[in-house]
UniProtKB/TrEMBL annotation:
Keywords: NAD, Oxidoreductase
Functional pathway: Amino-acid biosynthesis; L-serine biosynthesis; L-serine from 3-phospho-D-glycerate: step 1/3
Family from the record: Belongs to the D-isomer specific 2-hydroxyacid dehydrogenase family.
Catalysed reactions, semicolon-separated: (R)-2-hydroxyglutarate + NAD(+) = 2-oxoglutarate + NADH + H(+); (2R)-3-phosphoglycerate + NAD(+) = 3-phosphooxypyruvate + NADH + H(+)
Protein name: D-3-phosphoglycerate dehydrogenase
Job of this protein: Catalyzes the reversible oxidation of 3-phospho-D-glycerate to 3-phosphonooxypyruvate, the first step of the phosphorylated L-serine biosynthesis pathway. Also catalyzes the reversible oxidation of 2-hydroxyglutarate to 2-oxoglutarate.
GO molecular function, one term: NAD binding
Length: 394
């Protein structure tokens, strides 16, 4: 088979993942025309012209706020992500962030970098100066975790292992998430309750309309005096001016975040990192492997796992002929699709349909090939967003 699939990469994606695209059937590059799928990390795609050839977008990471998800849904295009694949990397940096702030490590390093003189002079300066950097310990302090998904749960577990008390807030926690959460994590009834009692507060929610500005001036005021805020989610979740006001008034001890900005640059009590949360060899590889496998399974078989806009639907192949249909989740779509097939004398071998919100997705294995004019007929059904014919290759 000569390169039937074309994959466009918008960011550097781990080679360990990309090598899972077989070279004989995939062309992968940062400049392919008419791509079948796009792989992306943090590049913002909102103003990008996404070609009609695109069938899938895969975010080799967790957050999909850089992808025009609603527009893709309207075109019947799934947006995959690597749910949980970088959670350990972020968790480790969050723990490092708590320690950086608790032990005043950044100003202490700056102090050491400025020391001059012979060893005896430096020793004296160190012993006189160290009192300015005395810190606090994590053990026995309370950590509040807002968002108990893949990252929040891991942060909670590690904080407990460090001897911290942990409380969490997540009104949309999944059943699986709730099962895997330690029973030692105390449930906060509201964000305000969590803020009132936490020495450290860490944010692990996606950037959505509902979470934009989640930590605003009133919530900064609601935080416990002397507490530290950590933001490894997205910059727009926190009102930076409100946090700076809290720091200037000595109401907050520190702000550790993964998103530098002009506002935060050089401010006392602020530690900013260059969006490093997921930048480890392991996380980059995990994310790439996960999304490459998902994209292959979707392009070749129409199977869907781990998207942010489609239902999960995986159907083993039982016939060489498969149709994949994305459609609006409204009545009688399945009836119309199966009537069209029956009208053309095509027998359905297996059919599965799932829905998620306004989106529905159907896989149909047929006993004989579906001719192009019938595909066009199904595409013309009102509410059908996308139809793909997926013959099993030899
Ligand atoms: N700094 C980095 O490099 C880095 C790396 C990975 C992820 N992230 C960010 O972290 C976010 C979370 O990642 P994840 O893998 O844990 O995602 P996840 O989907 O596993 O978890 C998100 C959790 O937030 C909860 N949530 C949603 N709205 C909420 C609200 N209003 N209040 C409280 N909880 C709410 C959800 O129910 C879910 O449990 C990503 O969306 C991304 O923005 C940043
Ligand atoms: O949402 C994510 O997974 C992180 O923000 C990581 O972004 P990156 O892949 O650009 O490092």
């Amino acid at each position: 088979m000569a390169n039937p699939y074309r994959i466009l990469t918008l960011n550097k994606i781990s080679a360990q993942g990309l090598k899972r695209f077989p070279a004989e059937s995939y062309q992968v590059a940062s400049d392919v025309d008419l791509p079948d799928a796009i792989l992306v990390r943090s590049q913002v795609m909102h103003d990008m012209e996404i070609p009609a050839s695109v069938k899938a977008i895969a975010r080799a990471g967790a957050g999909t706020n850089n992808v025009p998800v609603a527009k893709m849904s309207a075109r019947g295009i799934p947006v995959f992500n690597a749910a949980g694949a970088n959670a350990n990397a972020v968790k480790e940096l969050v723990i490092a962030g708590m320690l950086l702030s608790a032990r005043n490590i950044v100003p202490a390093l700056q102090f050491v970098a400025g020391l001059a003189g012979d060893d005896a002079t430096v020793h004296k300066l160190v012993e006189d100066g160290k009192k300015h950097f005395a810190g606090i310990e994590l053990r026995g302090r309370t950590l509040g975790v807002i968002g108990l998904g893949a990252i929040g749960r891991q942060v909670a577990d590690t904080a407990l292992a460090l001897g911290m008390r942990v409380q969490g807030y997540d009104p949309e926690i999944t059943v699986e998430g709730a099962w895997s959460l330690s029973s030692q994590v105390k449930k906060a009834q509201s964000i305000e309750e969590l803020l009132r009692h936490s020495d450290f507060v860490t944010l692990h929610v996606p950037l959505l309309d509902a979470t934009r500005g989640l930590i605003d001036a009133s919530r900064v005021k609601a935080m416990k005096s002397g507490s530290v805020l950590l933001n490894f989610s997205r910059d727009a979740i926190v009102d930076s001016d409100a946090v700076l006001a809290g720091l200037h008034e000595k109401h907050l001890r520190g702000y550790v975040c993964d998103f530098p900005s002009q506002t935060l640059q050089g401010q006392a009590g602020v530690v900013t990192l260059p969006h490093l949360g997921a930048s480890t060899e392991e996380a980059e590889e995990n994310c790439a492997v996960m999304v490459v496998d998902q994209v292959r399974d979707y392009l070749e078989h129409g199977n869907i796992a781990n998207t942010v806009n489609f239902p999960t639907l995986i159907m083993p192949r039982e016939s060489a002929h498969r149709l994949a249909v994305a459609n609006a989740n409204v009545p009688n779509m399945l009836g119309q699709i199966s009537s069209a097939l029956a009208g053309a004398g095509i027998n359905i071998h297996t059919m599965m349909n799932k829905s998620r919100g306004e989106m529905a997705y159907t896989l149909v294995d047929t006993d004989s090939p579906v001719p192009p004019q019938l595909i066009a007929q199904i595409e013309a059904i009102q509410g059908v967003l996308m139809v793909r014919c997926l013959p099993l290759s030899e």
